[in-house]
Amino acid sequence: MSPRVSVIGAGPFGVTIAWIIGKEGRPVRLWSSSLPKRKALRSKRKAPNTPVKLPDNVEIVDTLEEALEPGLIFVAVPPSHFRGVMKAAAPLLTPEQRIIHTVKGLEPGGKALSTVISEETCVLQTGVLAGPVVPHEVWRGDAMSAVVGSRFHAVAVEAAAVLTGPSLRVFGSHDLIGVEVASAMRTPLGLAAGMLHELGLGRATLAFLLTRGVVEAGRLASVLGGASRTASGLAGIGDWMVTADDKHAPVVQAGHRLGKGEACGYDEAEARVRTLLEIAARHRVEMPITEAVGAVLDGQAVDEALNGLMSRRMSFEI
Amino acid sequence: MVRKEGIARERIDDREVISAITHRVTARLAHDELDILLNETVFMEEKRLRGTKNAEDAAYLAMLRDVRSQLAEASRRDLESLLRRVVQTYATEIHGHFDPAIYANATRVLPKGLALLLKRQKPWKLLTQGRSGLNLADRIVSSGAIGTFDRLVERGTVILVPTHLSNMDSPVVGFALHQNNLPPMIYGAGINLFTNWLLSYFMDHLGAYKVDRAKGHRLYKECLKEYSQYSIERRWHSLFFPGGTRSRSGRVETHLKKGLMGTGLAAFQENLRSGREYPRVYFVPCTINYRLVLEAETLVEDSLAEEGKGRYIITDDEFSRPDKVLNFVWKLAAMDSSVEVVFGEPLDPFGNHVNGDGDSIDPTGRTFDPAGYVSRDGEVIADDQRDRVYTDRLALAIAAAFQRDTVLFATHVFCAVMHRLLSQVRPGLDLYRRLLLGPEDRSFSTHEVDAELDHVLTALRALRDDGKVRLSRAVAAGSATDVRHGAMKQLGLVHSVTAVRDRGDGTIALEDPKLALYYANRLDGYTLPAPLIRGGAA
Q: Which chain B residues have a beta carbon less than 8 Å from that of A158?
């Protein structure tokens, strides 16, 4: 039997998930905390700047209580709002529910968002949706792939089943932490990619950046209890490749600004990088690329930061 | 009076229990490749017992060989019958024979005997003092969530999960239960403890069931797990030592065995399926805290050995010498509150806290019914992988409770301080090399010792204030000098070697760094500041 599905958060990604699930004929409840957004979605049946309309079986609901039916819940809100949403949802949740978050970052302070769920609610069956899912390519119907990380096999299988369609293939992973960390690394690597574009550097530099990003993400995942190899999958390098190549991605645009010597102008991205650096320092994990991005955010010139990376001592890849 | 709860609530028909276990194990394994399972069982047992001179073992081996001789020609039905034969043998061996009358007598007589021993009093004087005179509370002190525990035994099945340091743990925790009018519990006891007929008689009738850790094969483990699950379903409150064996190193256990622990969740689900009146299962973490551990010398040797640890079962430690046990108990009697038993906050099988009404509570204090973790729309869904994840979470919660509810005594803190000083003698040496340092490197001025003690005590008291550890009265409030004096006096009491010696020239020598390490290790896992640099505090 297909589970009841809700999506909390009606930003571009939340709307995309509701659309992906809804277009296969599955009923979905979509909730946003913003009344104007709910009104607009209800009247126009689409989010701003999206070419596709939400199917009729996507119901826009007015209260969190209506959205949180027993079943599978996708939460697509920024990390800074995540705990607040979970606190509000907690009295309405039961142990039977499953929560999949789609957030590509860790909470300020460094906690994985799956941890925040279990700290604020009674829900233990949690997961994360990650990978190279680009909304405008999804709407176009391009073939693509994503991964659901969950310690619970059945949760990953269930989430994959509701998301999978003719143009989206969803894999499962038991490495929840690894997927969350790999996904969080999208921000420093996206910023770095923007900086490199701005400096006019080519594909070889990008390849260097992304492959060493795999090592960094792997180190961090390992100390947090995840698997290092997860970073070389869809949630890691798969997602980063798409991000690095997407000049319209806000994080890459922020990287461009930094490359020009301007302010980042993307507070959420800056906060995510600082969170990663805090965790790395706490666990004594070497993360030279993230550190270099952090240094640029602190005012260092991009070429200086790059020189710092290039002049590190020789080491072995394997 | 035995409290009519748990296994004392009903009359047990041994044949019924053995038959139920046999039936359940054979049903569970019905879809397995039984010929391979049985052949593997015989192979492993033959390897273990080859050349045995013990008549019982020889008969058991002959039975297994007979089973093997029939495997090749056996039909499916024959295989099931052979499986039943082996499982019945194990079920019969495992099952204990709790007897409320013996329990009532034992709990009436043993405290008197123990009190006599512990208080060094004349029997007639003891008898004239009445119950208050038999108070063991000043030797075995219980604290923690006793009231909640007391309420939960009537609301479901309680599984007590204590830390494990000594062979004294079972009687100590048994006494603590009795002392607090908590019901008897069944518990798995190593089969090696049943070799003494008197001890065996009492253990068998006081709630112990036999666990033969040498039988490492799958079929035996299935029988053991089934026995545990069956007991929990029947609301026989149970006790497991989740560390498996005694902590060799003296550390608070962090890596817990999850096999038996998972039977709590399995029983909870079966209770829900069967619509039982009291389906809930509660885990009560418990720490048993000793100032001194009789077996410390042997255990730490084993811990330090390259091989051994969990694989090596000590059969010839200090507990095999009755005179040593007696001497040890006698020495313990000279101390106030020699053993502290702390009953922790109860948990559900998913690692959530539970309130006194037996409801699970989420991290923000809201109550909820945990049945939803294993069911959809009211129907219980079987999922072994899911259950392993839940049991992992429970194990983490129990390990955290162990850490939080451990009581650190002066012996632990002082030995840790001596080892911290030793680590500063030649920084960079690993533990094993430090243990080989000569006597001249293992002496420290009392001034240095007290400065480091003061440093560590300050940190421990801050951890205590944050609820991260418990401290004995002396460690909580005593000066560094008091703690040092107290610890040295106690360490000199029971062990055959002296861990630490006051040389009388203003220095203290770490005479046996290995024994001291055993006590020092109790502080592992607590975040402490770096040691003061040697001489820097002078």
A: none
